[in-house]
Amino acid sequence: MQRLVVLGAGESGVGSAILGKKEGFEVFVSDFGKVKETYKEVLIHHEIEWEEENHSEEKILNANLVMKSPGIPDKAPIVTKLVKAGIKIVSEIEFAAWFTEAQLIGITGTNGKTTTATLTYELLKQGGLNVGLGGNIGKSFAGMVADNAFENYVLELSSFQLDGIEKYRNHIAVILNIVPDHLDRYDNDFSRYVAAKFRIIMNQSEQDYFIYDADDEVISRWLAANEIRSQKMPFSVTKKLEKGAWIENEKLIIKLNNKEEIMPIATLGLQGQHNIKNAMAASTVATLLKIRKATIRESLENFQGVEHRLERVLKINNVLYINDSKATNVNATFYALDSMETPTVWIVGGVDKGNDYAELLPLVNEKVKAIICLGIDNDKIIEQFGSCVDIVVETDSMKSAVQVAYRLSEKGDTVLLSPACASFDLFKNYEDRGRQFKEAVRNL
């Protein structure tokens, strides 16, 4: 019997363990941290052996195969030992793909992944396809494959997940954009991060499709320098294309073989340049999979976005509170600030992933009246913006950040939580940070 060791007992780890057991592996799960109660119950229910707050080498180094959760860096001591021992390490995405014949739609990009994946899933589901949504959001791919659930999967894929694939192949692959992020994980080498993103198309054939932003310089440069096998389906908000998606007379046009007009952009449920691009990517997928134009139009009109991404929480004393906790990098916060139409009290900070805040300066100058720092180390933020904003306040809890924002804001202002940083210094994750923000606002 083949022995599968799963490193990390989060969503992808537990999903892989269940799938491994179903496929006849002897499974052992090891987590260096604490395992959440809900996951413990699942492992016990499936009679899978596990450990927490430890990696027992004698139980790990005798594996035939190791599934490493995407959050565990390649430099972790146990991973180094596995590599030295010549034991095969795969990602959950790769492992799950071995056991399904389903059609795979993979979506990556520095920003907009969750919105686009969720929107794509809605379009396909409304169009009558048997489809699941997972990967970097919601359910693990492996867990869904273990349930034998779907004929099509829409998967949000992070660069960390793509780092660990070998044969995994998307029938339709999407890259939304590429800007510097997670550089701490790639030794501050942007080209390695770009290469990780482009792994999404590495196993595609001439029968497969690649959807990408033709306005993105990094993507265009890579495509100019590299041959690809799949059929290109670009989208653009600045130019008319021979095929793909573009804007003409304020309408969203998609052209595969002959021209199709989808809808006026003014009626999209989510507004803003980046959301128009997300809608273009999602509706190109839907068009390739033969979803009716009327269904696409209706779904795009009704889509209200995802939690923690420019989510309107409440209006109090005519001040709007917006939760953009999912903005874990500078570029995502750039979108958020860019979409602000009123004087803004900006809550920012957390674990800095090698951020360069300089590109935000013009927007902060124009839109931000006060900055509230929410992190353990705020020096970089204060240094960057201290001279262009009159009020900068440091806080160390969400409750106090929201109370300060309440005091500093006036009628007609917006209070925006858009941290531009990871959340691990004060919160479990960006969801926890966003929920604490919403709770603090509701308790004002």
From TrEMBL:
Positions that bind ATP: G109, T110, N111, G112, K113, T114, T115
Subcellular location: Cytoplasm
Recorded metabolic or biological pathway in which this protein acts: Cell wall biogenesis; peptidoglycan biosynthesis
Documented EC number(s): 6.3.2.9
Ranges where the Mur ligase C-terminal domain occurs: 308-421
InterPro entries named in the record: Mur-like_cat_sf, Mur_ligase_C, Mur_ligase_C_dom_sf, Mur_ligase_cen, MurD
Protein known as: UDP-N-acetylmuramoylalanine--D-glutamate ligase
Protein's organism: Pukyongia salina
